[in-house]
Records
---
Amino acid sequence: MCGVPLTEITRIPVCRTCLAKPGPLEADYFCASCRTPFLNPFSLDDDGRCSLCREGANGFDAAYTYGSFEGELRELIHLLKYARVRTLAKPLAKLLAAALPLDRSFDVVVPMPMHWRKRWVRGFNQAELLAKEIARKRGLPCGMWPENEKPLRRKPG
Ligand SMILES: [Zn+2]
Ligand SMILES: [Zn+2]
């Protein structure tokens, strides 16, 4: 990623410095449900929720994120998704697992399914690789959505 030749034998074609660069999302104010960062507390209600979550527009109980989709984190995700560097699933899952609160219990980890054609082209579903790692780390089962059942709709764009 940085152009420096790799000096160590590793299955991950990214140097240690680049791999260690993505930092957690930093903001003073977050929505308690969707983790959207805000510059000030005025957009949040007494329960710490943003207006979308307050109105139920987000349609989920809570979302967790490790960092902003930019810089090294964005490059690492692109390497996993598009350059098919599957060995990045483990270090990326580690970051994602660190974003999950330890005091919350979860029943099952389910990856976002991928259209079979896309999966066939890519050879794997990156969400599945991440979900399996996170499930293993937290001692949870890793589930799958039944075929032909759409769990969620992607927002266009
Ligand atoms: Zn590097
Ligand atoms: Zn929210």
---
Amino acid sequence: MQQSTDDHFLGGVREFQQHTAPGLRPELARLAQEGQSPSQLFITCADSRLLPNVITGTGPGELFTVRNIGNLVALPDAPGRDDSVAAAVEYAVEILGVRTITVCGHSGCGAMQSLLRGAHRRAGRAGTPLTRWLRHGQDSLQRVRHSPVRLRGAAPSADPLERLCLTNVAQQVDNLTAHPSVRRGVEAGTLRLAGLYFDFATAQAYLLAGDGRTFSPVRPRLESAA
Ligand SMILES: [Zn+2]
């Protein structure tokens, strides 16, 4: 058992060196030599419960990942625009040549809760980096009022937070298309956009339909073939 937070952190690294690194070394050595060529850009929330590689069954070199508060994709012309996500999108599309961009949201998102409480409205002179960042989620708040995204075959969730978490994914997928490199890729048929939602309580992933209005559960392969 570790004695302190620092010991706990280093204990994990030591554990990795001892048990995991030997198995990963050949693949990482290959990637170190050849460079990365991931096929997917994965944009998701910074929430500690969300494990991108685990829920997508991917390993080193497969997922180019951007994480931020609320899995937000700021519009290129948004006030106080954000170049971080835009730069990652441009790099992934133009340099790495990814074929898919996935926006992945999740249940119980703290950023969505803050939006519901109006934190973004305190983004003026008394604003903080967090409240200013949350302004990039305002479009999701608008959208959830007139066309909330729901689970397929179900009424919109009675829970305002769940409605917003789901709807935010669809909005951020739409926001991607405002980025020139994405628009070009989608129009050329070389780039596909996807929305994913992960529910922690049931460890279930849901995929956004092409019309951006509903999510369906992703079934295990055997079950979906039946
Ligand atoms: Zn979140």
